[in-house]
Amino acid sequence: xxxxxxxxxxxxxxxxxxxxxxxxxxxxxxxxxxxxxxxxxxxxxxxxxxxxxxxxxxxxxxxxxxxxxxxxxxxxxxxxxxxxxxxxxxxxxxxxxxxxxxxxxxxxxxxxxxxxxxxxxxxxxxxxxxxxxxxxxxxxxxxxxxxxxxxxxxxxxxxxxxxxxxxxxxxxxxxxxxxxxxxxxxxxxxxxxxxxxxxxxxxxxxxxxxxxxxxxxxxxxxxxxxxxxxxxxxxxxxxxxxxxxxxxxxxxxxxxxxxxxxxxxxxxxxxxxxxxxxxxxxxxxxxxxxxxxxxxxxxxxxxxxxxxxxxxxxxxxxxxxxx
Length: 323
Known about the structure:
The longest helix is centred in the C-terminal third of the chain and has 22 residues, at about 295-320. The model is unreliable at about 1-25 (pLDDT under 50). The chain has helices at about 5-20, 45-60, 75-80, 95-105, 110-115, 140-150, 165-175, 190-195, 205-215, 260-275, 280-285, 295-320; strands at about 35, 65-70, 90-95, 115-125, 125-130, 155-160, 180-185, 200-205, 220-225, 250-255, 290. It folds into two domains: about 5-125 and about 250-320, Bordetella uptake gene, domain 1 (D-Maltodextrin-Binding Protein, domain 2, 3-Layer(aba) Sandwich), CATH 3.40.190.150; about 125-240, 3-Layer(aba) Sandwich (D-Maltodextrin-Binding Protein, domain 2). Strand 1, helix 2 and strand 2 (about 65-70) form a beta-alpha-beta unit. The strands form two sheets. It has a six-stranded mixed β-sheet, with helices on both faces. The protein has a five-stranded mixed β-sheet with strand order 7-6-8-5-9. The chain has twelve helices and eleven strands. The protein starts with a helix and ends in a 5-residue tail after the last helix. With about 325 residues, the chain is an alpha/beta fold. Helix content is about 45%, strand content about 20%.
């Protein structure tokens, strides 16, 4: 769905007007804070939640508990978080999937843009365009030429319809006009198995999921999906060098229920930005190919609006829908 920046700010203004008086936030927090992750333990979303939760616990002086509520590509956790009391004690570990889901799912009973108070972004994580070594292409340009010469013969694996692998690949198809066959799997692990065996030819995977296979030579990295090179794969150029305007990195951040008091949001934003500026945190994020992504809550709100519109176009192009 599309929502203008002006309309988004109106939602924010309404939240500020309805929110409890700032006096309620003066001593915040006075008890444990919960961060809800919509994915299973061990995934990148979960790891990001735990990294920032540990740091916030130290900075806020109260425990920050991570609660996993996987299912429906984070929609279960999202609904739970936005329906929680808007007091800053229940936060959601949000990500790019929330922006994709707004169009991918036909009948959500919530509106992510309207129903959340953006707190802070945490990190960006690049994806990597990778191919099986049997594919005769060492660069994106060579891959494009090969795919054009072999229409409908390139199988593109993903973790499922609407997954980050899927939409990154569909954006590539949309920008290049290539005819590739999308093969959705029930998870990235299964998709990787068939990519490694050569049954699939290309995948736009998360860097944490594929980096070890790339380093071992089992897969060939052609490019990263970020605008600039990524430290985790310094030799891989950005896809944008070959396909102007292409960008498909994942972002992670914290949001709360709409109407969360503005001073609580501001306090959490300051603490998150301080946490990701810490050298130790930067090192931990780098382990997953991530880079700190600081900004204001308003910056995060802008990103959510823009990414929701961007991925809506891609989802509609792909034809993917989930009821």
